[in-house]
Design a protein that fits this description.
CATH superfamily: Kelch-type beta propeller
Distance between the termini: 36 Å
Largest sheet: 4 strands, antiparallel
Number of helices: 1
Structural class: mainly beta
Shape: globular
Radius of gyration: 17 Å
């Protein structure tokens, strides 16, 4: 039985905690993963996005108190170098991030003052953070996905329970509306745009991590079941790469191949972590930050060739 994941930790502003999974499920050697340049500061529960072949990370938490961070940075895979950026206006953990029209958007999360609905964006071409319209309600452990010229803020946690809400952002009006709710409430999941649809993978509901995958067709606004995960995953990093999805959580690495409609196991990362972010950039999969099985926030970045 897995212990209760980050919901309790964030609500109590506790240490870096999360679901602890077994080390099984790897089909090949972990030697396939290699270390890349580390983050400048250890952190978990950060917001992140890939823009123009670079990885952006902002906020998160560190330390036994779950102290929220304002630190923002950018990783250049070609140079294997991190660059410090303008910090978030307010230190925030468990926010959601995505790339939207070439900008880095961070929504919601938890601050020292409590859960927030704030949405800010950073233009990588210069300048600092600027405010966008706030979410209709505070959320943390949710996900933010850009698809079809809109932003989707999905699920998450607030007021002591998981949420089904889907908030949809219309950039021309700088306004959030409501989309079709998730079939079931969930938080601590992964979500990406994949083959023109929105995929929600794994997560936590109540005392249990889940194997569920849900797919939203943005044209019809309808959800349908997707290919169930081989094992439950929560607080995972999820990345899309061509016909594949890559899901990473601690020692578990699962790859979904759309050409076969099946999940398979991949090599375990060298440093198992949950509450991390994952991105497929320039032929490699990157696992960024997170919290180790020893419940220590980590600056580790690992990469795996996935061409």
């Amino acid at each position: 039985m897995r212990p209760v994941a980050v919901a309790l930790a964030v609500l109590c502003a506790g240490a870096c905690v999360g679901a602890l999974s077994s080390a099984g499920g790897a089909s090949t050697s972990a030697a396939d993963w290699e270390r890349a340049a580390s983050l400048s500061q250890r952190r978990s529960y950060a917001a992140a996005a890939a823009i123009g072949g670079r990885i952006y990370v902002a906020g998160g938490m560190v330390g036994e108190t779950g102290r929220p961070l304002a630190t923002a940075s950018r990783y250049d895979p070609r140079r294997d170098v991190w660059t410090t950026l303008a910090p978030l206006p307010t230190p925030t953990r468990s926010a959601a991030g995505t790339a939207f029209d070439g900008r880095f958007v961070v929504a919601g999360g938890t601050t020292a003052a409590g859960n927030v609905a704030t949405v800010v964006e950073l233009d990588p071409r210069g300048g600092g953070w600027r405010r966008l319209a706030s979410l209709p309600a505070p959320r943390f452990n949710h996900r933010l996905v850009a698809l079809g010229g809109r932003l989707y803020a999905l699920g998450g946690y607030d007021a002591g329970r998981e949420r089904r809400d889907v908030f949809v952002y219309e950039p021309a009006a700088n306004r959030w509306g409501r989309g079709t709710p998730l079939p079931r409430p969930v938080h601590a999941f992964g979500a990406v745009a994949f083959h023109g649809e929105l995929w929600v993978v794994g997560g936590r509901r109540g005392e249990s991590a889940v194997r569920e995958v849900w797919i939203l067709d943005p044209g019809t606004g309808r959800w349908r079941r997707g290919p169930t995960l081989p094992k439950p995953m929560e607080l995972l990093g999820l990345a899309a790469d061509g016909d594949r999805l890559h899901a990473v959580e601690e020692s578990t690495y699962q790859v979904y191949d759309a050409s076969t409609g099946r999940w398979r196991s991949g090599p375990s990362p060298r440093v198992p972590r949950h509450a991390l972010e994952a991105f497929a950039v320039a032929g490699s999969l990157y696992a960024v930050g997170g919290c180790t099985t020893a419940l220590q926030d980590s600056p580790v970045v690992e990469r795996l060739a996935v061409r």
